[in-house]
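A reminder before we start the practical. When you read a complex entry, don't treat the lines as separate problems. The point of joint prediction is that each chain is placed relative to the others, so the output describes one connected object in space. Small molecules and nucleic acid strands, if listed, are placed in the same frame. In the example below there are two entries. Take a minute to note the order of the lines before looking further.
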Amino acid sequence: MSRNPLYFDDLQVGDTFQTATHALDTEQIKAFAQQFDPQPFHLDEAAARDSMFGSLAASGWHTAAITMRLLVTSGPPLANGIIGAGGDIEWKAPTRPGDVLQVHSEVVALTPSRSRPDRGMVVLRSNTLNQRGEVVQTLNAKLMVARRAA
Amino acid sequence: MSRNPLYFDDLQVGDTFQTATHALDTEQIKAFAQQFDPQPFHLDEAAARDSMFGSLAASGWHTAAITMRLLVTSGPPLANGIIGAGGDIEWKAPTRPGDVLQVHSEVVALTPSRSRPDRGMVVLRSNTLNQRGEVVQTLNAKLMVARRAA
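Here is the predicted structure of the whole assembly.
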């Protein structure tokens, strides 16, 4: 697969990208939760049944981290990497063991930096979908993207 | 330490919480990056020197995950756990090997649910600070918090 580096100047609002997929399983969900989000509904099936989630669900931060992995390894090949200043995130549905996640992204804003002529700000909207096409997470990330040298 | 469970009805705008600390090191930074954000500036000191970061820096998602761990293990003891619907996040400064992170949180909004009388939405602003008191991340999280039974 060709992965020519993309600079700020190469991007247009409306450009779309689609990543490879990631298969989530119980072991991954519990391992992440043990390390970063040790709450019963992410660690134990029985506890999850008695929670708002109804059955074992991944930490939202796990979904976010998998989304980042997919973007970095098979998303837009930004010249200086995928470097975020921040953004907003929404978890629309739980992610579960057996889910196969994929990220669909779209450039929604492009703002050249006034103070730094070597870069611009790109807002990339990334929907993370499961195998049924349901959006489990939406992330609007503000990315710092290098400009082509003048 | 007493950790009486907190319900929506127990919280007030302006309530503050402070977590324990987490010491970040090179090994953790590289392990997280290898799994979720495999970019050179999170994996390799020499590559990081030639990047926007100037030296090895943790993935922002790693900072977010550590923030969640601190909130879950020593933040507000919410009755039903810390369950986020989403929020906005800003990475204000890189996190580095040797950083000791701590989270200072404040309740900034409380909204009873109209459709679900058993819960409310709490906006919790969490600043993640390093050992010099610099804010490395700000997270405004929308949390679903259970109400006391009427």
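Discuss with your neighbour: The mean pLDDT of chain A is 96. What might explain this?
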